[in-house]
């Protein structure tokens, strides 16, 4: 393998070693770091990480505790390997900073087989670069005893290798996590359907790296969730990604607009996605719904999916159309304000715009003007 040279900047092995990293004043002062404090046994590693891999002296000293090499041959070969496989300088720096131990790997025996395995499953060079840059610890996992079995486990829950690669692009680190297999079994034992587990693996693989999955399962069961329903998987995602403080904050926003905690629970059970919306988004939807449109906040308990819809490009334009129809006496008294927001755009226009032929031109202008304003706000 060719010697890696494009990344090596100001790396003077012998002089740095002989001086015990007693670097010239400008360099030392620039980093505000006392190189004399670096142990002799770590001096080469520290100098290599700083000058070749873009580390700060402090982070290099910290990483050096886990690294043992006395020449640049092996780390240079690792950097060369990554460079030859299409990684940019910044990507190589990112990989090494996140998992510096790969500098001690044999590229041909440890790294290459993992690249070949991913390619054999349909991963492109761009896929591999993306995955490794995001989760370099994958390169340290044992291929035969860990990666291959974990891959086959994931593959058994999805339809194709392409879906597994998509999953790994989202979070390749999970495949090297020993908690995945027992957590999958835990879900199966609790009645979670294979299709729901496949959805978790494809969309939120980090869920399966949890150390307290059983606690979340019990909590959702106590709320009344059915583990055999797809909503259970979504609810699990919400409970595991929204921390307690943010969860309480979102509940308080709902209560500010007239909901009780029971209303929050009912809405969450109907559409768990709504608790994945930001506090600001939840507040903005309630504000428009109650203060601008004059609707009851309790209608959102029936249709919590509305909270996830785009305010400027869906909720507002459709509400303006409904307001015009109501003003003209063209809607039944007590008709729902929520259901018209749910259909596709074509279905909505057909029923609530073109369905009123006498007023369709005016209704379309109202709708399109609001949509254009919404597009401008989102630009």
Taking pLDDT < 50 over at least 5 consecutive residues as the criterion, the unreliable ranges are 1-32
Tell me what portion of residues adopts beta-strand conformation: under 5%
Rg over alpha carbons: 28 Å
Helix content: 55-70%
Helix and strand content put the structural class at: mainly alpha
Please give a structural write-up.
The protein is mostly helical. Among the domains are: 1-105, no CATH class; 242-284 and 297-303; 309-379. Helix content is 60%, strand content 0%. The protein has 21 helices and no strands. It has helices spanning 13-18, 25-31, 43-53, 57-64, 73-84, 89-98, 107-120, 125-134, 143-155, 161-170, 180-189, 194-203, 213-223, 230-241, 244-256, 261-270, 279-292, 299-302, 311-327, 345-352, 360-378. Helix 3 (43-53) crosses helix 4 (57-64), helix 6 (89-98) crosses helix 8 and helix 19 (311-327) packs antiparallel against helix 21 (360-378). The two termini are 48 Å apart. Mean pLDDT is 88; it is low at 1-32. It holds the Pfam family mTERF. One of its GO terms (molecular function) is nucleic acid binding. Keywords: Transcription, Transcription regulation, Transcription termination, Transit peptide. Belongs to the mTERF family.
